[in-house]
Amino acid sequence: MITRRECLGSTAAIAATAALVPLGILPRPVDAQEARGTPILRSIPASGEALPVIGLGTNNYSPTSFEERITRRVVLERLPQLGGKVVDTAPAYRDSEVTLGAMMAELGNRERLFLATKVTAPGGSVDAGRAMIEESFRRLQTARIDLLQVHNLDGVDVLMPELQSLKRVGRVRYIGVTTSRAEQYPALLAAMRRHPLDFVQVDYSLANRGAAAQVLPLARQRRQAVLVNLPFGGRRDANLFARVRERALPDWAAQFGADSWAQFFLKYVIGHPAVTAVIPGMTRLVNLQDNIGAGFGALPDEAQRRRMEEHWDREVAPA
Ligand SMILES: NC(=O)c1ccc[n+]([C@@H]2O[C@H](COP(=O)([O-])OP(=O)(O)OC[C@H]3O[C@@H](n4cnc5c(N)ncnc54)[C@H](OP(=O)(O)O)[C@@H]3O)[C@@H](O)[C@H]2O)c1
C-alpha cells in the first residue's frame, strides 16, 4: 500500500522516479518539449472549443505496485504541462477512474484536463446506466465530466435522453459514443445519423484504415468531433511497434517533423482532417515525451499521407 504522504508532492514523486531511470522504466527528465512552441489544436465542431491533438488513453491505469502508480502519475502530471489535455477512461477499465480521480486530487490538475469517460446500459437498463454515471462522478472526484460516451454503443438509444439531460444541466459538457471494432461501424453510422452527438470515438491507424471509408467523412458532415483509439494497434504484442522494430524510419518522415515511429503513426492519424484528438495509451513518461512531439510542428498533407500508406502496405505489412 502507498501512503498518502508518499504520493503527495511533485518533488517527492519526481525524486522517486529517479530511482527508476537505471531500470529503463523512465528516461532522465527531459523538458525539451516545453521549448517546442504551441501545440496543434483542433476545434470541437459543436462549440468551437479548441483541444490539443494528443491525449491519453488509460485502459491500463490500474497499478498494482508503487512503481506502476508513480510512473502513471508522472504521465498525468506532465501531460498538461507538455501541452496535452484529453484523458479517456471508462468504468470498464478496472481501477482507471479511481486512479485518475485520486491522482488529479493529489496533483490539483483536474481543470487542466478534458476528462472523457463512458457508460453502458447493462441489460438495457437506464437505471443501471444512471448508477454507473453517478459512480463515475464519485470515482473521478469531479462535479463535471467533459465528455460522456456510450461505450461500444451498448445501450445508445436508451441512454441518449439521459445523456442529453445531464448535458442540459451542465454536469456533462459533451456527449458521444465509442467503438473499436469494424463490425460495429454500421451501428455507429446509424447512431451518428440518429443522435445529436458531439463526439464519436473510433479505432483508426496506419494499419487499420477502415474508419476513413465512411465514419470519418460522416463525422465531418455531421460536425461531430472525433477521438481516435488504438492508434498503435493496441497493447498486444502484435501492435504497430512490433512491425517496425527492425526498421529505420524513412528519411522523408523528416518532411513533416516525425522523429520516431510513434510520431509517424500519430501524425498519420491526426493528419486526417476529421480527427480532433488521438488518445494513445501511455503509462510511461518516455512514451508521453515521444508521443506529445507528434502534436507539434508540421503534419503530413494528403500526398504525404498516401505515401505513408504505400510505404506501410509495400514495405512493412507484407514482411
Ligand atoms: N471501445 C472503446 O471505447 C475503446 C477501445 C480500445 C481503446 N480505447 C481507448 O483508447 C486508448 C488507446 O488504446 P490502447 O491503449 O489499448 O492502445 P494503443 O494506444 O494503440 O497502444 C498502447 C500501447 O502502446 C505503447 N506505447 C505508447 N506510446 C509508445 C511509444 N512512443 N513507443 C512505444 N510504445 C508506445 C503503450 O505502452 P506503455 O503503456 O508502456 O506506455 C501501450 O502498450 C485506451 O487506453 C482507451 O482509453 C477505447
Task: Explain what the structure shows.
The protein has a single domain (49-316), classed as NADP-dependent oxidoreductase domain (TIM Barrel, Alpha-Beta Barrel), CATH 3.20.20. It has 12 helices and 10 strands. It has helices at residues 4-7, 10-18, 66-81, 96-107, 126-140, 156-168, 185-194, 215-221, 240-244, 261-270, 285-292, 302-316; strands spanning 41-43, 50-52, 56-57, 86-88, 114-119, 145-150, 172-178, 199-203, 225-229, 277-278. Helix 8 links the parallel strand 8 and strand 9 (225-229). Helix 2 (10-18) packs across helix 3 (66-81), helix 3 (66-81) packs across helix 4 (96-107) and helix 4 (96-107) runs parallel beside helix 5. The chain is globular and about 55 Å long. The protein binds NADP nicotinamide-adenine-dinucleotide phosphate (NAP). The site of NADP nicotinamide-adenine-dinucleotide phosphate (NAP) has 30 residues, from helix 11.
List keywords for this structure.
319 residues, alpha/beta, TIM Barrel, eight-stranded parallel β-sheet, two-stranded antiparallel sheet, binds NADP nicotinamide-adenine-dinucleotide phosphate
Q: Strands, helices and their partners?
A:
Elements: H1 4-7, H2 10-18, E1 41-43, E2 50-52, E3 56-57, H3 66-81, E4 86-88, H4 96-107, E5 114-119, H5 126-140, E6 145-150, H6 156-168, E7 172-178, H7 185-194, E8 199-203, H8 215-221, E9 225-229, H9 240-244, H10 261-270, E10 277-278, H11 285-292, H12 302-316
Parallel strand pairs: 3-4, 4-5, 5-6, 6-7, 7-8, 8-9, 9-10
Antiparallel strand pairs: 1-2
Helix pairs in contact: 2-3, 3-4, 4-5
The chain binds NADP nicotinamide-adenine-dinucleotide phosphate.
NADP nicotinamide-adenine-dinucleotide phosphate is lined by residues 57-60, 88, 151-152, 178-180, 201, 229-235, 239, 241, 262, 279-284, 287, 290-291.
